[in-house]
Amino acid sequence: MYVINHKEREQEEVTMDESEKTTVRWLIGRRSGAKTYAMRLFEIAPGGKIPLHQHDEEHEIFILQGTAKVLGASEDTYARKDDVVFIPSNEEHGYDNSDGSEPFQFICVIPLLKKD
Asked: Is 30 helix (H, G, I), strand (E, B) or coil?
């Protein structure tokens, strides 16, 4: 067991093609001893986005701050502070904070899939 301030985790730029003004901190993951799940903290600055993409793992998300358009959902779907978002495996998703006036910040929990 350990307790650590989230700011002690390295903040990295998200390098996915077409991502803009987005950072991630791996709060808990394989490198910190987790075997089943990872927890990440994302922040999309005003004017930023994570484009449509998909993964084998599902996502459980809790919005901490801001409002952003949820890409891949029905038209005009927005996620706001205190909302939760569930993204099933292999479903296209993304976030657009292009019109935002504050950062869009969320916790994203994913299963750690077995590596071949």
From this structure: helix
